[in-house]
Amino acid sequence: MTARPPLHQRLGFAADARLLIVNCDDVGSSHAANLACEQAMRDGLATSGTLMVPCPWAREAVGMFAGLDLGVHLTLTAEYPGYRWRTLTGAASLHDAEGYMPATVAELYARMRPDDVRRECRAQIEQALDWGVDVTHLDSHMGATHFDAGLFEIYLEMAETFRLPLRMASAEDEARLGYAGRARAAARGVAFPDILIAEWGRATRDVIHDRFPDLPPGISEINIHPVIDGPELRGYDLREADIRVADHGCAHDAEIAGFVNAQGFTRISYRPLRDLQRSLA
């Protein structure tokens, strides 16, 4: 049997084409994040974003991001000490002793009931759709649905149910996770980029300079976390605010934009992946 062409060729690009998705994570996490992510998508390097539906500023983002490609950043944790959020479903196994989502993935895994996770993920996607978001894809806050094989099955189930592509760990990272998620997703007709670049804590501009020249043909994704500096950000992120401020600057850096263009990348969002996936379902 003849092997299927790679995904980027099925999207109509040449065999040697290098496509790039630049995704703004954490849309809806704060007003400052909404402002920065919208600017990054309308005027900067970013091509898509993902919405943290349970967060207080998610509803604001829906109006701000009209006409932009927005997915759902499935959220099961609330990591900031003084700024917390709860689930949509109220499931006890998804809340800590203070009544908020757990602060860490490890705490989530220790407390959760998988059926509660399934209901919460579905509720977040359905809420975004009810708000009028034309959801383009799914990804996972803090990787919670990536790092556990059981939760990955729920993640994949959501992609099938709502006919949406997924952010996936790259092949080299999947070996460390201990399960064949990419093969399972492909077998069930779920689209996903070939490579994910996610190096939290390292300057994004350095990651771009180091990694992009060696990326092969296909679809690569890099995720960024832009937030505008100021009292709001400094009030809730007490440890890693500088990373978010630097990502905001990187998204508008003319040198970075020129470097990416010089590498010959075609920037796309997740929408073409979603449309192809749905056309083949």
TrEMBL record:
Specify whether Ribonucleoprotein is a keyword of the entry: no
InterPro entries reported in the protein's UniProt record: Glyco_hydro/deAcase_b/a-brl (IPR011330), YdjC-like (IPR006879)
The organism sits in which domain of life? Bacteria
Question: What Gene3D superfamilies does the annotation carry?
Answer: Glycoside hydrolase/deacetylase (3.20.20.370)
Q: Which UniProt keywords apply?
A: Carbohydrate metabolism, Hydrolase, Magnesium, Metal-binding
- Tell me the cofactors it needs: Mg(2+)
- Spell out the protein name for this chain: ChbG/HpnK family deacetylase
**Organism, as annotated:** Sphingomonas colocasiae
- Origin organism lineage: Bacteria, Pseudomonadati, Pseudomonadota, Alphaproteobacteria, Sphingomonadales
